[in-house]
Amino acid sequence: MTAMRTSKWTAFLLSACVPGAGQLAARSWTCLPWFAAAGLLAAAWGYAEKILGSSAAWLFPLQLGAGMALCLLSAEHAKRLLEVRPKNGRSCVVTASACRSKSSGRKLDIEISLDVARSAADAWNLISDLPRFLTIDPFHDRVTLMRDRPEVGVDLVLSHNAFGRRFLRFGKIIAWREGNGYTFSDLSPRGPKQGFPHVFMINIEPQPTVESTSPITRLTIHVRGRWTSRLVPVCLGRLWVWLVVREHARLLRKGI
Question: What is the pTM assigned to this prediction?
Fold first, then answer.
């Protein structure tokens, strides 16, 4: 019987509470230095309180800030231990990804591009495996196609996991260009005008290379949508989406 794999967000939350706990859940020896760091930090604060006494009012905010920083660093490290990795163990990305924003007002338009050391045919095989490729994403946990094969009009169920909170969004394949790319929507169950409606436009394009070098294919992902929240200012919404897309680019560099 196969043991259940720990979720990256479970590891994140565990280490956010106790540095090293997420690494332990991921079965990594790196839990030891994190446990040691937490113990040393606690001992240092105890010694400082003993020496300075209650007169140092600035000590508590410093303790709180240092403890939060350690927890967040440990949590991010634990999460990264459980992220998707290439099947052969090595990334085929040959250049650092570019992440460009053309957003304006409530309209968001951000592009990721990176070059991979694969032929166009191999790159297509990679991106056309939707259940795997679309989960190389900060929040997509599982992608389910409502038909056996992807094509225009096929509905998608997009299971999300954000900081341990699971929820469903729904989409549809809007365009399917065999061997070149596709477009699909990612919409809130409340309706197409609620909850940040957006689309992903995924394309591949062979790049010119010298005959003696390996083939290079450029992978481009456009994220286009609209910030609909009235509670969160547009500027913060655009910053949040840009940071999420940057994280998506990092995961692609690591996972393909």
Answer: 0.84
